[in-house]
Write a structure and sequence with these properties.
Number of helices of chain B: 17
CATH superfamily of the largest domain in chain B: Periplasmic binding protein-like II
Number of strands of chain B: 12
Oligomer: heterodimer
Order of helices and strands of chain A: HEEEEHHHHHHHHHHHHH
Largest sheet of chain A: 2 strands, antiparallel
Number of strands of chain A: 4
Largest interface: A-B, 58 and 71 residues
CATH topology of the largest domain in chain B: D-Maltodextrin-Binding Protein, domain 2
Largest sheet of chain B: 8 strands, mixed
CATH architecture of the domain at 110-338 in chain A: Orthogonal Bundle
Strand order of the largest sheet of chain A: 1-4
Radius of gyration of chain A: 27 Å
CATH class of the largest domain in chain B: Alpha Beta
CATH architecture of the largest domain in chain B: 3-Layer(aba) Sandwich
Strand content of chain A: 5-15%
Helix content of chain A: 55-70%
Number of domains of chain B: 2
CATH topology of the domain at 110-338 in chain A: MetI-like fold
Distance between the termini of chain A: 25 Å
Chain lengths: ~350, ~400
Amino acid sequence: MKPKVFAAFVGPSIFMMLLFIAFPLVSVFWNSFVVTQPVYETVEVENCTAGFLEQTCTTEMETRPVLDESGEIRRQTEFVGFQTYQNVLEMGRFWEAVKDRSWTALQNIDFWKALRFTLMFTLVTLPLVLGVGLAIALVINNASQKIKGPVIFLSLLPFIITPVIGALSINWLFRGDGILTAFLEWWLEQDLALFAQAWTIELMMMFYRVWHVAPFAAIVFYAGLQTVNQDSLESAVIDGASRWQRLRLIVIPHLAPLLIFVAMIHLMDTYRVFEEVVGFRAEGYVISLQWLTYDFLTPDQAGNRSISRASASAMLTMIGIAILLVPLLKRTWRDHKGSH
Amino acid sequence: MKLKTILMAGAMSAVASAGAAECAFENEVPLRSLTAGFEAWKAVTDNMAECGNFEANLDQEFREKQPEAFAADPSLYHIGGVANSTMIPLLNAGTIRPLNDLVEEYGQHLSPNQLITVDGDIMAIAMMVNNQHLMYREDILNDLDLEVPTTYDEMLEAAAVIQEADVVEYPLGGTFASGWNLGEEFVNMFLAHGGDFVDDNNMPTINNEMGIASLEKLKAATQYMDPEYLAADSTYVQQQFQQGQIAMANLWASRAGAMDDPEESQVVGKVTMASAPMGPEAPVSSIWWDGIVIASNITDEEAEAAFRVAMEGIDTETVQESPEAAVWLIDGYEPGDLAAGAAATAANGARPYPASSAMGIMHSVLGNGIAPYLNGNKDAETTLADIEAAYMTSAEEAGLVE
């Protein structure tokens, strides 16, 4: 292919990637190192506000932003270095908690509390998704031709549901006297409040995530199962290998690249856990890193929002995902080099 | 909730285009409004729509959209619905206009109480007040020979008796949902203790005796509530009432009407309104108002039309059509039984919500910071110190403190 033709082919996608990936990334990166704030003045103002029967007027010192000639709020942008990261990470309190060996103190710092849950959520659901996914794939693979279609359809259903909607339905099923809580209460003959402590909420979040994502893993593994070398399987049977041995020694090694692929996708997705926190209204008990970013970004009623800290938090999330992916990437790289 | 809002907005636009019915004048200028989505706003915008050429957007997320939408030139909306706190960003950005001339020409009937003025300029027209006050099941209190609680402590004592008698699932309801609602509960309690949240230099002043006492009172109340109280917002508590699950709650006046709505409520006629229970200094409540503002970045003709339409929306006719949708400030409103609680709360000296830029930050960090105390993960001093630290970080980032 001529260089010119090549350029014409990839040009649009490079442009798109710059516009939609590189530019936002650079902008977030930049925002995490600067703080933009209005210039404020303090003035004495008389305010009259509505009471039930009469107006109440008060004169007080009020801080309000300075407007420029065109009527816009005058803002200044200042380079603050790593200050914003410091504000998110709160390293001072972190080291103090480490020195005191106080887990409670550590869990009282928002970022570390969110990191603890995010990591646990990611690492606990990973083997479950792989395991359940593989199990479903094997069931589909061994189902007779006649019912294969319906079985695939049924097992894919959870994956089709929009994550927020799924989380909300779990919330409604279990919250207060939801149907399933009522059933559990009747069955166990005791009062339950599943949303009144952190650990039950976390359990439900993990259960929901595995339920939701396992079908995706299953369908990928099912595709992989179609290419397992039948000769090896047959000779294994002749050699007297049990079902479990065949699975462990032939099928799983064959599926290894797919296992890594699913694991990578899952790590990237789960580290950004968010829908569960919002859908379960769990902010009071459990928060995740992505929720923290969202919270920084949400304006309060007076219109303030923490763009800088949201950017820093987003950058930290990206770094976290990169670190988690390192072992898997290393393995893929080794395999890649080995195959040449 | 969102879906409901969207559906409602859709329905509203449909109503809007249906056009002129009982408006005093024919509106020729296309107008748009962005307001919250609760009952009173629905009543008001329905009446505005009768003037024709008017599109209402009722949206519970309005406060996230309003500042940006009004900053556009021309502004995306002509009429805005605000409360005392949500007016601050618009006022700060100069995107709402002084209404002195328009009030002189078209608003002579307004009572002085409705005119929200800042440094002599009328910036908003209030239409209703809202506060949290005591709602209780009269039948339950009568059965147990309980007096109507007048202080927060009496309310807790009554709750203990009701719990003992085991007549409802939970004696108390409370809007303790982590976030804005929980922040508001602390605000009410701290105001009731006579506290101020920030000083003249915007430095936080909550880490003191009053702050600790407020936290302890809130925690004492939670033991009588549904253990999932950290997700209980106004609608949740309202439904608990309607389904007969709770006996008392300090709930928003704007929710009072729903108690007697036969389509939703199983306790019609059984819920009575009373003043918010007293704290040491004032009722555990704060007074809010809701009203309309007109955008700066529109032509004077549009502003005039918008103001006239808005006046149609908040006229006596609206009050007569929906007397129970709110505690109206509008001429012709006669407070009924449902407004008794809001009125008594005001009469007992409830303080206005101290809206300001700094308070916006304070409210957010309170809303996020109190849950660990209620969960038992932090003691009161640490909680307040952490909240003040979080406030300082946010306020420094916002530029409010050096």
